[in-house]
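Question: I have long wanted to understand how a fold can be written as C-alpha cells. Here is the record:
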Amino acid sequence: MAKAIPRARSRRNIRIGSHRNVRILRRNVRRMPKGVIHVQSSFNNTIVTITDIQGRVISWSSAGTCKFKNRRGGTPFAAQTAATDAIRIVDIQRAEVMIKGPGLGRDAALRAIRRSGILLTFVRDITPMPHNGCRPPKKKRV
C-alpha cells in the first residue's frame, strides 16, 4: 500500500515547538505595531497578558498553564517561561510593560521580554500601595 503524501502546511499554521509530546501550532499570528504587556506576579504564580492599545487581550499565559504547579509557579524560571509563551503568539514591534505585584517573577519576566527583541517604550510599576491601610479590627472586650 502506498504511503500517504503529507499535505503542505500553510504559513500561518506552522509548528513552532513541542512540550511533553504536545504539538504547539502558531495559528493566528497577530501582527501589530504597538501593544501593552501586563505582568502580574504573586508569590505563587505569574500571569503575562498582552493587549493592544485599547486594552483588548491578544495573548496571555501564566506559570500554571506552563505546567508549573504549587510553589514552583512563583519561581523566576516559571515567570520566564510564561513570558516567552505569551510573546510567541504575537508579533509586536514596540510595547509598554506594566508590572504589578511583589513576586519573584517580576525581573525574570522582564528579562524574557527584553530578550525577545521587542522594543520597550517604557516599563512602569503599577503595584497597588495602600495609602492608609485596612481598617483595624475592633478591640476585644473582656
